[in-house]
Fold this protein.
Amino acid sequence: MDKLSAFQAFVSVVEQDGFAAAARKLGKSRSAVNRMVIELENDLATQLLNRTTRNVSPTANGQAFYDRAKQILSSVADAEESLRSHQEHASGRVKINAPMSFGTLHLSSAIADFMAQHPGLEVELTLNDRIVDIVEEGYDLAVRIAEPDEETTFVDFRLCKVRRLLVASPDYIRTRGKPAHPRELKTHASLNYGAQSTESLWRLEGPEGPLRIRLNPVLCSNNGEVLRDGAVRGLGIAVLPTFIAGPDLQQGRLVSVLDEFSPGPLVLSVIYPPARHLSTKIRLLTDFLAERFGSQPRWDLVT
């Protein structure tokens, strides 16, 4: 039995929801694909698929085996790609996870530009603000924005620092006044990243050292663009990264406050499993993102 072909057949059946569609994708007969999967099940002494006259679905063991087989096939594809491309071109499929706001505002255009340079590349980009397990969920890499001292068991390629500022609209400042010290924030309306039920606390660094400021936010959200919109409308003071607030600061829709007191920077990184550094597409994409966002990020040029 050709195990690699059997793995491909099984993975395709799961992804295509049936033998007929899998056979069409692989360019084989339905009976050939069915035979390879049966031989694989016999070799493993485990049923991988539940079969009915209308449906095919993986068993619990089949789902676990699918995840591992998918990783093996991806590693084989990466090795073949490296030999074929001579380290010059990215091709094949890459699955990426990234934060929502950064993804829509900056990463999406970067990925489009990278794909234009490498037409053989296929990308699946998923945007959300939770920390994903890139191995368990099958991602080739993740773009993360985190605290500088956050540890990870994966390869962590740091692209740049992400500045954060306290900002408010000119209308808000005219109406409520501009705070001169962080302790005055208690009397101001604040817009906080997170849930209403969680502790609302800003940690700032200034001439007096670290400060912890408790807040009574009027608006909470797990999305920075929501807080940006609230700040522009004059709802209160927000802590925002410059990759979100930069254009509004440039256009005067927002102004910075308490410039001597900083929330401290975050770090923009590319995270991937150790084996992925052998992949041409991952290396080239990482280099591209480092050139695009490293050193002096373009969003800081507008502040």
Remarks:
- Residues 32 and 135 are 31 Å apart (CA to CA).
